[in-house]
Amino acid sequence: MSAAQAGSPGAARPRASRVFGDGPLSRACALIHTLLTVEGLLLLTLTPSLLGLLFLGADPANLPLAALCLTPLGPALSAALYALHHRSRALAELRPARAYLRGLRLNSAAALRICAPLLAWLNVIAYGLTHFASTGLPGWWAVLLGVIGVGALLWGAHALVLTSLFTFRTVDTARLAGYFLLRHGRATLGAASLLVVATAGTLWWTEALPLLLAPVLLLSLLHTSRPIITETQEDFTA
Predict the structure, then answer these.
(1) Residue among 100, 77, 78, 42 at smallest CA distance from 163
(2) Which of 49-53, 100-104, 128-132 reaches the highest mean pLDDT?
(3) Could you give the CA distance from residue 173 to residue 168 in angstroms, rounded to a whole number?
(4) Distance, CA of 14 to chain centre
(5) Residue 16: left if φ>0, alpha if ψ -120 to 50, beta else—which one?
(6) Residue 15 has pLDDT above 50, yes or no
(7) Distances from the Cα of 92 to the Cα of 20, 21, 28, 98, 125, angstroms
């Protein structure tokens, strides 16, 4: 066959092979499956904490016990972030449970070193705000405490992302999280918007709503933290 014949319209052309699980519908199903699996594993990991919180009343005196019950939240959220970051887009290659358990094994200790002091600090702020009327301090002190608490939560969001996806010393993670707090304003605003959504859901509907939406919120946190992840990969890892 000549070259002209090979290029003729009537000549047979090879068709691109399509692999099962790489279409848009399959990718959507893969995402839904991953989110539901991560949600189930997250609830399973936090079951002891949730049961402990159910037995605690709304008395401010129970704040230290509530903080103690919430201690496993850091490792659980870190494992969920790890699983969502390493999720497969192909329906035939889904292993979200394995990724979650791997993230739990790799990041639990580092997440505890970040989240335990953060919970203790937030507990101090919450205790101060709930007993603020008896302190006799001016009202702007309460506003200042609230701002400090929000800043601590935003720092914690950046630190949680770094802890979940990278291996640094705790002090280096803390410094990088503080550095990125101002360095990437859009990422910080994105984390703040997610905090507003979680707070609004708690106040207007139920305290369980942020937990039920946790995989979606964490996936959004990964998206807004993309500049932080990219810069960390390029400038702070070998």
Answers:
(1) 78
(2) 100-104
(3) 6
(4) 44
(5) beta
(6) no
(7) 7, 5, 13, 15, 47
**Average model confidence (pLDDT) for the chain?**
87
Q: Residue 20: its pLDDT value, please?
A: 47
- Long-range (24+ apart) CB contacts under 8 A made by 207-212 are 211/42, 211/43, 211/46, 212/39
pLDDT of res. 1: 40
In SS3 terms, 104-152 reads as HHHHHHHHHHHHHHHHHHHHHHHHHHHCHHHCCCCHHHHHHHHHHHHHH
Can you tell me whether residue 197 is helix, strand or coil?
helix
**In sequence order, which residues have a C-beta less than 8 Å from that of residue 117 and are 6 or more positions away?**
none
